[in-house]
Write a structure and sequence with these properties.
By secondary structure, the protein is an all-alpha fold. It has a single domain, classed as Ferritin (Up-down Bundle). Helices cover 72% and strands 2% of the residues. It has helices at 2-19, 29-51, 57-84, 93-97, 111-136, 141-163; strands at residues 52-53, 109-110. Strands 1-2 form a two-stranded parallel ribbon. Helix 2 runs antiparallel to helix 3 (57-84) and helix 2 (29-51) runs antiparallel to helix 5. The longest helix has 28 residues, at 57-84. It is globular and about 45 Å long. It starts with a helix and ends in a 7-residue tail after the last helix. It binds fe (ii) ion (FE2). Fe (ii) ion is lined by residues 49, 65.
């Protein structure tokens, strides 16, 4: 929801206002939202792992599980950075829904459509990550570094997915 995004923006401002840039009371809410994006990607990736059909079933079925594992790892890194700073993350279903990643059809999905659907969603989470990474840089360089690593992985995945669509980097 937009509201979620507004909440995150407000938290950035709140943190800046209350800590005076000191970092002692720093909270990781903006980046926590990115953790939710990668959890949402993992759920969609697993869904497509189950519903994919077509000539490329086997390699993509396996590749989807690799991606799902990567998204779980990225979410874990973000959530644990949040905990290290004293913020308790919420990665449950209701919170993940706020990540606003459009669901895919729960139906047989052609291999090419799987790659296209996934590329769009990885690009969406990449864009959100980049925006929040830039905002976070003003607050805490170490937390920003966590998001830089998330973004590096997402953009690499975006390239490898779009290459399968014969498009090259998006
Ligand atoms: Fe499986």
């Amino acid at each position: 929801m937009d509201m979620k995004d507004q909440d995150e923006s407000r938290n950035v401002e709140d943190v800046r206002g209350s800590s005076g840039g000191g970092g002692g009371g720093f909270q990781f809410r903006p980046a926590h939202g990115i953790g939710l994006g990668t959890i949402a990607l993992a759920l969609i990736g697993k869904q497509l792992h189950w519903t994919i059909v077509g000539r490329l079933f086997r390699p993509l079925h396996l590749y989807l599980d690799e991606l799902v594992a990567s998204w779980h790892e990225l979410a874990d890194a973000v959530a644990e950075r949040a905990v290290a700073l004293g913020h308790m993350p919420d990665g449950q279903a209701a919170a993940v829904a706020a990540a606003q990643l459009a669901p895919v059809d729960a139906a047989a999905t052609r291999d090419r459509d799987v790659v296209r659907e996934l590329t769009q969603r990885v690009a969406q989470v990449s864009e959100q990550t980049r925006a929040r990474m830039e905002r976070l840089g003003e607050l805490d360089a170490v937390s920003q570094d966590v998001l830089i690593e998330v973004l590096r992985s997402l953009e690499e995945q975006q390239w490898m997915l779009s290459a399968q669509l014969d498009k090259g980097p998006a």
